[in-house]
Amino acid sequence: MGDIKSRAQFGISGSYDVGPVVLGATLEHALEEDDHNDAGKAFTSLELSVGTNVYEGPYGSLDLGLTSLFGDKNYMQIWYGVTAGQALQSRFQAYDAKGGLVSTGLYLAWTMPISEHTTFSTLLDVQYLSKEAADSPIVERRLQSAILGSLEYTF
């Protein structure tokens, strides 16, 4: 299928508190790496989120939120599309992905203090791919999930 090489990206992220709810937006743009390679084209994505704290106490903090991810045509083609050349070299049929909604999802984040300088955080993220992304021949499941754990020490 080929490689998606790392490249320069820039973005802006912001949030706004509306009472107990936090509205967020992150806009990212990847610079063109190779205009003759489909995986090297410039792309843009936008993530919108709304979240709130559902618990704050001796066991830490629990946050819950909803997200939506949008991508332009190049974003969708790089991550979900299959070019004619890729189709010839793989078991997948060609697929021309269109820009738009990529996924909607739900996250649950728990941060627990262990000591004065140490915290443990865990994140459960569940994303439901849009029809455009889910119809891609490289996608096995429309419902995507991830679990992340991190240990942070500050000094």
Which helices and strands, and how do they pair?
Blueprint: E1 9-18, E2 21-30, E3 43-57, E4 60-71, H1 73-80, H2 84-88, E5 100-113, E6 118-129, H3 131-134, E7 143-153
Report what the structure shows.
The protein is built from three helices and seven strands. It is mainly β. It has a single domain (9-153), classed as Beta Barrel (Porin), CATH 2.40.160. Strands 1-2-3-4-5-6-7 form a seven-stranded antiparallel sheet. The model has no long low-confidence stretch (mean pLDDT 93).
Observed structural traits:
single chain; 155 residues; mainly beta; Porin; 3 helices; 7 strands; 54% strand; elongated
Brief overview, please?
It is built from 3 helices and 7 strands.
CATH top level assignment: Mainly Beta
Main β-sheet, spatial strand arrangement:
1-2-3-4-5-6-7
Question: How many domains would you count in the coordinates?
Answer: 1
Major β-sheet, in short? 7 strands, antiparallel
Number of strands: 7
Overall, the morphology is elongated
